[in-house]
Specification:
The structure is a single chain. The protein has a domain of 27 residues. The two termini are 23 Å apart. The protein is mostly helical and 52 residues long. It contains 3 helices and no strands.
Length: 52
């Protein structure tokens, strides 16, 4: 039995706050640095344990 998920890619991309920062990147390192810089400038939720 398979389980499939579909998403509206444009809608999903609009929710990414750092999309404009990674548009012109060429390597995984550039992407990583852009995300790190973004996270340093925004308030993030505190980490919590995922119940299982």
């Amino acid at each position: 039995m398979g389980l499939y998920f579909t998403v509206d890619l444009r809608g999903l991309a609009q929710g990414v706050g750092y999309l404009d920062r990674i548009e012109d990147t060429e390597s995984a390192m550039e992407i990583s640095l852009a995300i790190e810089e973004y996270r340093d400038k925004v308030d993030t939720r505190p980490r919590s344990v995922i119940p299982h």
